[in-house]
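re: that chain from earlier
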Amino acid sequence: MAEEELPGVLILDIGGTHGVLEDLAALLKKHFHLITMKEFLGNKEEMSKKIQSIFVFECRPTIDRELLESLPNLKVIGNSGVGVDHLDLKMISSFGVKVTNTPHAVADPTADIGMALMLASARRLVEGKVLNFLGPSYFFGILHFCFDRGYLSESIFGM
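^ sequence. v structure.
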């Protein structure tokens, strides 16, 4: 399938601080003709006809009424990340555009962080690290616990 036959997808940019990750862009290119916001703004009349979807990565590009009005063939907005609070769903649906989301994309990392926070809280690891770093003399007169640097085994931190 030639690139011209692929449906156009609008993205903010490829790479950089706010653009789609380059590995993800390579995957998208297999199924879509990627159009960056810069390309779109440089030639709105021609590009607006090609764009059938928008890929929102880290809440960008911003979806507003002006953008939606300029994309007559837009069918879907694909949101990558958790939640759609940054999207005005009523306004978007008034244009007949569907919104998709990836709710389970970060489920495992979120569970990992939650588990790590519970373990750190239960074992007072953050407080222990501060005390270990500053030393007991810093807390003169304050009741506290202190880890001996040799006492903590690597297996605890490797958990």
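Residues 1 and 29 are 12 Å apart (CA to CA).
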